[in-house]
Amino acid sequence: MDGTELIHDLLDGDEDAAADEAALDRARLRLREVFEAERLAVRRRRRWGLLAVAAALGVVVAVVVPLLLPSSRRPTAAAELRHLARVAASGERLLIGPDEFLLMRSEELRLESLTFGSGNDLGSGVTFAKLSHLRVSTWVTSDGSGYLEEEVLSSRFATDLDRQAWIDAGKPQIDLPREGPFVASGSPLHDTRELPRAPGPLLQALREKAATERSPGDDQVFILIGELLAQGDATPTLRAALFEAAARLVGVEFLGDVTDPLGRAGEGISFAIGPRPTRLIFDPGTSMLLARELSEERTDGRGTVETWIAYQPSTIVDSPPPGA
Amino acid sequence: MRTDGEIFERSRTEPELFEEIFARHGPTIFRYLRRRLGRGPAEELVSETFLIAFERRTRFDASYGSARPWLFGIAANLLRHHLREEQEHLRAMAKVPISRPAEGVEDVDRLDAQRLRPVLLDALLELKDVDREAFLLVAVGELSYAEVAYALRIPIGTVRSRIHRARRLLREQVPGLPAIEGQGFTEGETAWTEPS
Predict the structure, then answer these.
(1) What ipTM, to 2 d.p.?
(2) What distance in Å separates the CA atoms of residue B124 and residue B175, rounded to the nearest whole number?
(3) Nearest by CB to B83, which of A20, A143, A236?
(4) Is B67 helix (H, G, I), strand (E, B) or coil?
(5) Lowest model confidence (mean pLDDT) among A59-63, B11-15, B53-57, B87-91
(6) CB B195, CB B161: distance < 8 Å
């Protein structure tokens, strides 16, 4: 027995031909579903090609009718989300090499509640809220660890009462630079590895995740979907399934052409049920999530504040930030 | 029989043909993933490997011939997200008695092998991730050095130095380890002098 055989033996400890065959069969069946779906899509595209001539004859009707009845052409949110699912499915996956980083960048207006005080109990401090305009960069390695950098571009108090509370607290410094490494278990990203890729089970998993980590309700699921779609490590298959899952939510509405907080044109989808409406803005050509706008409730119960996150395309880079 | 390249080409309009690519290479990729991660994660990752391959089938360079190294490259990328699971799997494997026990007479080789297992396992875990990756692609995946270079998109010289480092460390850490041979290693070292 040479060294190579010994290694094979070491790693083959759980060898079971029947179990292997069963696992391969299950994998084959899952893949067959995808191949079959694509086969039907190809057939549909061919059929549409054959119908192109006939469709040309209907161009006049197709142009005139929408002019007379413009609202009749407005797609539903579900139809638009399914279109985005198809676009997402053909997208590229960003793979992180051994010496590479996934770089995700965003700009956001974040509601932050700060408490200053000397007491041991939480109630004895002075709490005030501010809105911080941040530029956030996250570098992630293939093992999930990484580095986070947040630059405060500007900040303002949510209300005059918050400003007064800050003065009462002795005007503590609040716009400190924030940066530092994180380990995989402390990653600001969601772990996408265990999420199902089929829309039905995925929606169920997201409902459970929302109920466990936040609060039950499809408004939280919609926010969760937005966060996952913004993650640069989400695969095209997962992104397509996320759009499909969103299409199944009761309460999504198509807003048509909108502009995101950075002035970029996109299409809006909102979730209007629940106490805090949320709006996601997509680039319909690439399915990229441009921005998320949220009506956020203050932790002290003093009303709601409009916040947003605008995302930039994720990229693969070969170095962390200087000084990391 | 159609080449892999021909199947990739035709699968653009006949996607169902891609199942033939899975039939040809799925078991090999699965076996490699199972040896590194265990059966459950391997089942998931082999599906994901071929899903990604299917999504990117227009990008496969048909002139290369076999899709095997290209598929191993995708699998290797996915594996990098599962390094912790690999460690757990390797530790579990160390506790399993060596397979295929000799019939009748006790096999001294196998008894030695059984003794070496935990030490070899520790040594494998101590390898740098990139060295272990290159080494196991040859030792377990049975790729040639050139195929590893293609799979990992690195120069063949880098493959050689990573594998050399891995073999040297294994020899040092596992006294009594039999020579690590096999076709892939033999061919990979052809016309190559180990750095002094």
Answers:
(1) 0.83
(2) 14
(3) A143
(4) coil
(5) A59-63
(6) yes
Say if residue B153 is exposed, middle or buried (CB neighbours under 10 Å; 0-12, 13-18, 19+).
exposed
The residue with tokens 């805090």 is A276
Q: Residue B179: which of A3, A30, A236 has the nearest Cβ? A: A3
Is residue A122 over pLDDT 70?
no
The Cα B86–Cα B132 span in angstroms is 11
Residue pair A287/A226 in contact (Cβ under 8 Å)? The answer is no
What's the mean pLDDT in A40-54?
A: 80
Q: Please, which residues bridge with residue A181 across strands?
A: A147
**Residue reference for tokens 């653009």:** B12
Whole-angstrom distance, CA of residue A230 vs CA of residue B70? 28
Q: Which helix (H) or strand (E) holds A134?
A: strand A126-140
Q: Which residues pair with A180 in a beta bridge?
A: A148
Please write the tens of the pLDDT for every residue from A225-276.
999 999 988 888 899 999 989 988 888 888 888 999 999 999 999 987 666 6
Instruction: Report which secondary-structure segment, H or E, holds A149.
Output: strand A146-157
A chain contacts of residue B98, beta-carbon cutoff 8 Å: 9, 13
Q: How far is A149 from chain B (nearest CA, A)?
A: 23
Contacts of A45 (CB under 8 A, 6+ apart): none
Nearest CA in chain B to A238: B48
Contact A2 B178 (CB under 8 A): yes
How far is CA A103 from each of CA A95, A106, A110, A312, B100, rounded to the nearest angstrom? 12, 10, 20, 10, 48
User: What contacts 24+ positions apart, CB below 8 Å, involve A39-46?
Assistant: A39/B14, A39/B15, A39/B16, A42/B13, A42/B14, A42/B15
Instruction: Render pLDDT for A52-77 as a digit per residue (tens, 0 to 9).
Output: 767 777 775 666 555 555 444 456 88
Q: What local confidence, expressed as pLDDT, does residue A228 receive?
A: 94
Top residue of B8, B29, B46 to mutate, by most chain A CBs within 10 Å, is B46
| Cβ-defined contact of A24 to B30 (cutoff 8 Å) | yes
Amino acid in the structure at residue A55: A
pLDDT score at B193: 35
Q: Looking at CA atoms only, how far is residue B107 from chain A in angstroms?
A: 11
**How far off is chain B from A190, nearest CA to CA, in Å?**
14
- A286 token code pair: 């690439």
Q: Residue B129: what pLDDT?
A: 92
Q: Which residues lie below 8 Å from residue B128, measured CB to CB, with a gap of 6+?
A: B165
Q: Answer with the residue of higher pLDDT: A127 or B163.
A: B163
Q: Is the pLDDT of residue B96 over 60?
A: yes
Cα A219 to Cα A272: distance, rounded to the nearest angstrom: 8
Query: What confidence tens digit (pLDDT) does each residue in B134-182 have?
Result: 999 999 998 999 999 999 999 999 999 999 999 999 989 988 787 777 6
